[in-house]
Each structure stands twice: as structure tokens, then as C-alpha cells.
Amino acid sequence: MIDIRDTLVLRHGAMDCRLAPACGGSIASWTLTRRAGPVNLLRPASEAALAGDFAPDMACFPLIPFSNRIAGGRFAFQGRLVEMPTDFGSPHRIHGHGWARPWRVEEQTRSSTRLGFRHRADAWPWSYSATQTITLDDVGLTVALAVVNESDSDMPTGFGLHPYFPKPPGTRVTAPLRTFWENDATILPYRRHALPPAWDFPCGVMMDGVALDNGFTGWNGRAALEWPGLGLSLTLRAEGPFGHLIVYAPAGENYLCLEPVSHMTDALNRPDEPDAGVIALPPGERLTGVVHFEIGEL
């Protein structure tokens, strides 16, 4: 269990970013103070979430060493069968380890912090270390991810972020996506489709009334949110092996998620998919990626 007193705050100009290292290395809030008052650029964590140590109710959390679901928690990799316990009431394993473990503060300045954690081989039979460097600057927020394989064999590796953005009326999302995966009842992908007119993200989609939770392929690492009522825009710019975007917009909620990730859902069980995205990280090697969240005015 953590408490709000365990959070730390980064500051730069008119922006504040509150972190909760002990709660999955999560971001608890990111705000911009304007003349009319503060504006939430990420959906802020509730007091109950902070007190209850529950990363999914934070503003953003890391997905390491894989994102989304592994069917039944089971997969085979280079001749090795791996079986992990399922979690959160799902029949699948979800989102890796990072979001469920405390991270330690390794370095800190007024506007930047490096968080780290280490995993020792268990049901996931590889040891590895991971870091997040979270920085505020003149244009917004940057999160740099790194994973190092500390085992003596290749480790299947992926990562991403799970940010929750406000969705006030009129919110518009634009992203150069090519296809999407239709899900089964347990949110595993089973059929790929071209984008329907309602999800024509390359031309921009008004998110009022749109409900989805799907993986999209062919992403070039760029996406944009427009909040006309706030007069603000947010550009998401991912550098590194981010070829997939998860769009999560639950019905009736005032938030949505644009999750930059390096692989498709259940990629470890999709060896025949040419763009599945699993990376075989050799012993001692490092996988890195950077995600920028840049704020502008409309």
C-alpha cells in the first residue's frame, strides 16, 4: 500500500507532473496551469487509487516486458514453454510486471526523474532490469524506456505506455493507422480488418460516442489529440520499435487511452504474423524507446 505522501512532483514552467514510484512506476497526474486555472493533460489518479496502490487507476503506467494480453498466460519461445499465472480476474496474463511492482528513484532533478526496477527469473524465466526516465520540458512530457536482458538466453521483449487522456466533448484523434484487430470475448485478437469509416483515424475521428478497445497496426509513431473546448492539442510522438497503437475508449467514460506499444496483443502466440513485433533480446543487450507528449494550442 502507498499513500499520496509517497508521490513526488516534477515541475517545469507552468507544468507539474506527479509520480507514484511505489505504485507501478506510475504517473499520477500531469497538469498545465493557465490563466483560468490548472488543466489536466492526463486523467488524474483518484485519492482512492493512490491510497490503494492500483496502477490501472493512475494517469499512466509502463508496460514491461510485454503489453496487453498473453492468452492463458502461456506461450512457447525458442523451444521453451512458459506458463504464468493469470491476473485481475482475466483468463489471460496482462501488461507484464512493471505496472504491478514498486520502482525505485535512481536519479532526480526538479524536472526529471529516473525510475528503475529489477525482475528476477520466476514463472517468467528471464531476469532483466528496466528504467523509465520521465522529464518535463518546454513542449511537454517525455518518457524514455529501457529494458536490459540480464539472463543467459534470448528474452522475448516488448514495451509500451498506458496513458489515460481526458475526453471532453469534441475530442478528436488523428493517427496514421492501416488495419485493426477484431477481438474475441476475452479481448484477444482473431481477425484483421481494414479501417471502417467510423474509425478512419488517418482522417481524424471525433470520439464522442465512440467505444472501442482494439489494437491497430501500421502505425508510424505519431498521433494527435485535439481538445477544442480547451483550445489545446497533444501530439504523441514515439521513437523506437513502436509499430502498434492500442486505442481504448470505454463507453460512457470521460477518458480514452492511446497506448504506444512495440507489439500486437498476444504477440508471443502469433509467430506467423509478420508484424507481430516480438523482439528476441540477446543476453546483455538493451531495448530502448522514447515517447514524447507535446502540448500545443488550437
TrEMBL record:
CDD domains: Aldose_epim_Ec_YphB. GO terms for biological process: carbohydrate metabolic process. Gene3D superfamilies: 2.70.98.10. InterPro entries: Aldose_1/G6P_1-epimerase, Gal_mutarotase_sf_dom, GH-type_carb-bd. Pfam families: Aldose_epim. GO terms for molecular function: carbohydrate binding; isomerase activity. This is Aldose 1-epimerase.
